[in-house]
Each structure stands twice: as C-alpha cells, then as structure tokens.
UniProtKB/TrEMBL annotation, chain B:
Organism, scientific name: Neoroseomonas oryzicola
Record-linked Gene3D superfamilies: Periplasmic binding protein-like II
Keywords (A to Z) from UniProt: Signal
Protein name: Extracellular solute-binding protein
SUPFAM superfamilies named in the record: Periplasmic binding protein-like II (SSF53850)
An annotated GO cellular component: outer membrane-bounded periplasmic space
Domain of life: Bacteria
Amino acid sequence: MSATASRPWSARLRIEASASQVAAAAIVAAFLLAFLVVPVGRVFLTAFAAAEGGFTLVHFADFFRTSLFIESFWNSLYVAGMSVVFASLLAVPLAVILARYRFPGSALIAVLGVLPLVMPPFVGAVAMQLIFGRNGTVNLLLMDWFDVRLDLMEGLNGVIFVQSLHYFPFILMNLSASLSNIDVSMEEAGQNLGARGANLLRTIVLPLALPGYLAGASLVFVKVFDDLATPLLLNVTNMLAPQAYLRVTSVGLGDPMGYVISVILVVVSVAAMAGSALLLRGRDYATAQRGGGGLSQRRMTRTGRILAWCFVVPALLLVLAPHAGILLLSLATIWSFSPLPDGFTLAHYATVLRETPQFLTNTLLFCGIAALIDVVLGVVIAWLVHRTRLPGRALLDLVAMSALAVPGLVLGIGILRTYFDVHLPGGDSLATSWIMLTIVLAVRRLPYALRAATAALRQVHRSLEEAAENLGAGSATTLARIVVPLMAGGLAAAFVTSFATAAVELSATLVLVTRDVDAPLSYGIYIYMQSAAGRGPGAALGVIAVVVVAICTWAAHAFAERERRRRSRTVEPRGAA
Amino acid sequence: MPQPATSRRAILAAGGTIGLLHGTTRAGAQPALEPRVVIVTSFSRDVTTPFVQAFERANPGTKVEIQNRNTAAAVAFIRETRSSPPDLMWASAPDAFEVLKQGNLLAQPRIDTAGIPERIGGQPTNDPDGRYFGFAVSGYGIMYNTRYLRANRLPEPKEWVDLTRPVYQGHVGISAPSRSGTTHLTIETILQGEGWEMGWAQLLEMAGNFAQVSDRSFGVPDAVNSGQYGIGIVIDFFGLSAKASGFPVEFVYPTVTTLVPANIGMVEGARNPEAARAFIQFLLSPAGQQVLLDPKVMRLPVRQETYANAPAGFPNPFTNPSLGARVRFNNDVSEVRYELVNSLFDRVITFRLRELTDAWKAVRAADTALGRRDNAEGRRLLNEARAKLTAVPVTEAQAADPAIAGAFRAARPDRPAAGRQAQFEEEWDRHAVAAYAEAKRLAEQAQRAR
C-alpha cells in the first residue's frame, strides 16, 4: 500500500488502468453523480446550514445530545442485528436444502422464497395486521381455542419478526447463488482428504459460500436499519429511520434534524457495507475450475426428506401468510374483526382491470428497464472494484451502496429540485417523466444488483480471465465472453431482486409520478388503499403485482438452472481433456 | 411558462361578475376553457372520480388530470415545481393551504361564493384573502367497530371524556397531530375548549388508553375497520364512508368538536387558469355539492339546500346548532403555537406511549385496589401519581411566547428564538420519561399502601 501511494498519480494511472477501464468508470461515476450524489447532496445541505446561512455542525451536536435519538440509534442497531440472526435461521437451512440435495420442493423454495420481498406497500401492511395483528386471524383463533394472545406485532420484537420474514430472501438468494457456484471438485478434494458430513460442510462448503452469505446478511442489516415502512406500520417510532421520516415529511417544518438523521443513516449503512467487505478482505474465494455446476446434489435419506419437509412447509407457510392475507383481502367483501372475510367476490379484480390496466404494463416496462440498468451497472462496478486497480474504485462501490440508505422521499425531492427545469422536447419536465422514474428506480435498487454481482464475481477466479487475456482478448471482450457468462446465476438473482423490489417501490414514486397514465402498480395500490372502499381493489392490484413478480422470478430461475446444466454438460469433457 | 399577468387579471375580473345562479360553467360570455386541468390532491380515487366525471360531463372538451399525493408530498411538489406547477391543490388540511399561502404559492382566482355562508360551525368557510375555498366541512369524532365492542363487552363512547375511562385501556387509536392536520385541529379544539391545562390533562388520560398513535390519518380508520382496535379518533368522512361501504362501524360527534373546511385552491402560475377556476366554481355549485353525498364520498356540503337530499340521520350543521358551535375556534392562538403543540404531543405522547400507558395501568390498578380497601396514604400517593401524569412541561403563556414557539417554526432572521427546537424537545422528553417513571412508582406504592 505504501509503495503504491508513494508513486505519483500519473504513474499509477498510466500503469494500472487501461483506457476502457477509465471510460467505464467515468460513465458509472457520471451516472451516480447526476442521479444520486448531486440531487441528494442538494437536499442534505440543509443538515449543515446555519439559520443565518453558512456552515454549521450544531445540528449534529444536537443529535448526540438528544436522548431520544441516541435511544433510537441503539434500537435501530439492535433490531437490524436481530433481524439478521432470525433471517439467517430461516434462510440458511433453505439455501442448503436448495443447493445440496435433490429435493422435490426445490423450485417451490426458489420461487416462493422471493415473494416476501414483493410486499406491496400498504396492502402488505393491512394483510400482516389481518393475519398476525392483535386481532388478526392467528390471534382471534388462539383466543377462541386457548384464550391466549401472541403479541407478534408489538414493539421492537414485532419489527424484528416482520423484518426477518420480509428480508430473509436476500440471504436465501445470495447464499444459494453462492452455493451453487461452488465447484464440485473442491468438495471432492475435501472428501478425498477424509472430510465427511458436518466437517465437510464446515471446512469446505461454508467458507466458500461466505461471500454470498455476507452479501445477503449485510443487505438485510442495512435494509432493516434504514427501513421505515415496517416500523411505521407497527407504530414503532423510537427508531432512527422513522424519526428522520417523521421530521422530513411533516408539513411546513423547515427543521434540519430530519436531514441530520438521514446523513447518519447513510454513514452507518455505508460503514456496515464496508465492514462486510473488510471481513472478506485478503481472502480468496474464487475457484479456478469451472464446470462442476455446483455442489454435487445428493439424494436425501428418508429421514432427511421428512426433516426437510418439516422445516420447509412451516417456514413457507409462515413467510407466505401475508400473501395469503392479500389474496383473501382481494377476494373479500367485508373483513372486520373475524378470522376470515364475511364473503367472497371477484368484483375488485373487475374494478381494477376496468379502471387501471396501464399500471401493469408501466410496471413491467419501468422496472424491467431499471433492473437491466442495475445489472449492467452492478457488473461494471463489481468488475472495476475487484478486477482493476483504478484509483477511487472503492469510492464508486460505496457511493452506489449508499443509495440503500437514502430515503426515497429525499431522493425524490432532490431529483425534482435538480431536474424540474430541464424540459423534454414535448415540453414536459424531465423530472416528472417516466424516464426519470425509471432512472430513480434503478438508482434505488442498484445496491441489490451490485451486492449480487460482487458475490458472483468473487467466485470467478482471475486465472480464467488471465487465460482469456493471454489469448488476446481485451478487457471488454473478457468481461463479455468469460466473466459475465460465468456469473449468469448471480446475475439472474441480481435482476430478480432489483426488479421485484422496484415493482413495489413507493416513496420516490409518490413524489415523481404526475399522471395516472405514467404510474406503476405501487402508485395505483397507494391510491386505492387510501379509502375504506379501496381496500379490495388495492389488494387485487397487490395480488397482480405478486403474481407478475413470481412469474418473472420463475423465468429467471429457469434461465439460471438451464445455464448451469448447459455448462456442466458442455464444459466438463473439455476440462477432462 | 407563466401566463401574462394582464390577461389573467382581465379574465379574473370577468369571471367575478358571473353569478352562480346562471349555472357555473356554461355562461356564454365566459372565455373558453383550456383542454386540460391538472389537480394535485390527497383525496382518494373514490372521492375524486365522481367529481371528475361530473365536471367532465358539464364541460366536454376539458380533461381533468388527477395527481394523487399525500398532503406533505403535495406541498413539497408544488414548492419544487414553481416554474410550471399543477393548476389546483385539493385537500383537507387547512394548514397545508396556509403553508402554501405563506409561501406565495396560491393564486387569487376570484370565485363567486354567493349562497355559501361565511362561517359554518364557527369556522370561516373560505380564506379571507380569497386564496383557498372550503367546498365541504368535516368534524372530528369517534368511530368504533361494533363487532369489536360487542366482543370485548365495551360500552359505546359518546364524548371525549368517555375515552378516558379505564374500560377502554388499549382499545383507542389516534393519528399524530404532527402527521395529520385534522388531528391537530382536534387537539387544538380540545385545548381551546377545555383550557390548556385541563385539555392536556384530558388528552394525557385519554392517551393512557391508546393502543397506537398512527403516523398517517388513514391508518386509524383502517385499523378500526379491520378490528385491530375498536375505537378511533377520526374525521367524520372516514367513519361515514366506511359505514357506507359496509363495514360494521359507527361514527359519533362529541359535543366539543370543530367543523373544519376541506379546501381547494388555485396554484400561483397555473397554466390552465380558466379550467381551474371552472373546476373550483363547479365544486361550489349545487351540482358539485350534490356529489358530496355519494356514499363513497360522504362529506358535509357547504350549501344548506343540498342537505334536503341527504339520507336520514346525516349530520346537518345548519339545523343542529350544537354541532361544532360550542367551541369558538381562535385561529390566532392556534397559529402561534401550531408547531409547538405538535412537537409537545409527540414528545409526551407519541414517542413515550409505552411508558405513559404502563404508568396509567399502574394508576388504574392502584385505584381498583384502593376501591377495595381505602386508605388516606394510598389516596395521597395516587393523587400525586395522577398529577405527574396529567401535567405538561410547558405553560399556556410559554406556548404563546414567540421566543419559545418561534423556535419551532422555520427559522426567520427577524424572529430570534430563545433556544433551538432540539433543546426544548430534549428537555420535554426527559421530563416525560422522568414523570412517567415516577408516577408508576408512586402508583405501585399506593397499591401496596395500607
């Protein structure tokens, strides 16, 4: 490190970065600067502005002097940490079953495991309350039968419960992508050396899967730390994100504290991400051999299968209960203080299809493009960070990840402030056009794609690229022909996560959408859910959103599986020769 | 693309002379309407759609574009889009309109309000400067789920003071006044109706029964509709429209309530001023007022004659003089301490709800215990605990003091504050935590006293 630092900048640039690398970095940096750093920076300036103008840190001092904020800070840390623990308890066994065993329910786990991420705003909230709330289905039945009530949705523990159910797919997806990328020869080498069972798992499989697990776990941590929807739904306000939100959105309040908290959220999230990267530092998780097509999938013993089903079925029932709730709600006439609705009807679907068919096509278009942008940017950033020695590459990574912690509302306001006066040829403002909405969705969901891409890239050994380069391929060709195909599974995961979560993004959408005809599903759901009569149609739109995302997930899963099988068929003989 | 000022003024002058009795939009002398009008609103689709359809029927050739945002996002949007704003802002909370007006973001479109009383239930119907107009009035009240009350064997509440009764422990919900302009008005109404100290005492005792303080106004009717808790403090149309949609809920107005206008205003620099004016005028016309009685809308019209068509049992502020009339709402008092009241409520109730409800539980348990074997020492301790739980760390005079209340408003150089908002809030938070812990301790002592 000191040796490199002592060399002049020009020399480092000349030696360590090719023109194409610099160009790629410049494009990515320009994108992040234009649509994340500048808009958000313009809003965050408030945190440092003194009353009479000029720079001040007094608001930050106030933050650390305020006991409520300090308490909120610790609460947020506690909830985020515990959510990672419980999410891991759910996700790790599922991922192991998925990757390691020939299990008839694998496809089911892969698809249903993503659905919790697709919790349409407000509908999800209402459905969770109807199922798990104080007087939800579960508690009404428990009270009838046993006269007990479970406070599943109360206080910090309620937040942990809901967050674990909601975000465990991050771990599941990243970990299983990681596991299925481990080369079977590694495992065989371990077996040849005498490792069996748990020992094999501990010494070979788990260490090799660590990048994927950490990618998922750090996402869960940051996401929970920054999330507001869930604490607000449970009316838990003594956490950091809700405190910021309540400050920023109160009408007519020019108070800087909300922005101070936002800055702190961003800093902590970036620190968590950097911490997880640090854990992996100096270790090499890549395997040179490709073509094993993942761990050898083994047949389960009878007991094993029974045990697996005993875990999988309750776990899926638990995590999918909210979706069952949304489905019931979308079919319900009236559902009030009873375990099940009073009656059933299809009228809500008719209403939705009659009034608002454009929401669906808009969602597919906007989120599809946004997810593509994310995958491309994610791969490029991951590649720049881990495969080049470009100065400032780590900064790119951190900036992209910080999008995770920027409240959607802040980004939305920043975009309006920066781009409202830029007009498109038609005379409409760029800030409120669907193009900008797509870009904002891409910026908001880029961290998911980036984490997945990074985890996938970490497992591709450099020597494969060096081989390509020795054969005369340029870095672009190497990326396109060698690296990306090897990362296919991880990239499918990246696309799905970005797409699925973009489909239910609301907070920035709400600021930027100006016309019904340009609005995505989440906005439609929001509009419906603002009135008692709109609960059914809102839930119907929610079901449609979930189904659409499920289909896309299944398609991506099928694609990744096919890639894996294709590779293991065609590459193996050559490897043997 | 701002409209040339002269032509707009001429148009407005012409518009002012057209009487409502001639019909709102078809008067021959009127300039042609623009082909579109853009409305930012916090109202749900169910509310806006009937109005839009009726307006478009009356004015073929003009398309209405609705942009749904919550009130805070709508205000932010209008503020950020000065160069080509939406045409109309249409929402409940009068304070949001006041914020827009202070920011010079509302135009003065000269609307004919003949036939609409200046005051309904003590509150002015329209902005005195003619920048926003009340098209309906709403009052706050108590909404309850009848199935829930029956299952929990709870009596039906009628007055605010009923909600302080121990039977309702954990059964009541409200939205935070800092989040909902209409809740703020309810709180302010109680504070003005009962007096600052008595009002806070009543609120804090009521808060002892709160199951939740929600951050969005619709969260409360939603929870009552689905039976998460039984009783909600809500604005009337939430209760009335839920009932009209078939939910097992009822709504009552307590005696101390204020009728608040729901408003519409034209945004400064609107690109379609004629169509915007026509829409406002339509809302205020008899035809527009009739739409308010649609079962999905259910708001109280501002025209007396519209009530003739209302369903039986529909509240009517014109024939029921007690509705909203007991409290003469003082806007100036409210204006000065607006942000302070919100912040204080959040410090002593919203953010410390668990501590507060725990302390009240202890007080009520002690009360029951003393009911069985009364003794002076226990009573004394209990009274002390109650005193701790019903006092706020701010006096009425302090709340009106611009030096203190000013700390809670957007900083203005000409109005020096006595301290920063953060300092006061920290002080109140400490006070609340200490007082509630002390009250709980005293109550537990009282329970053991013999």
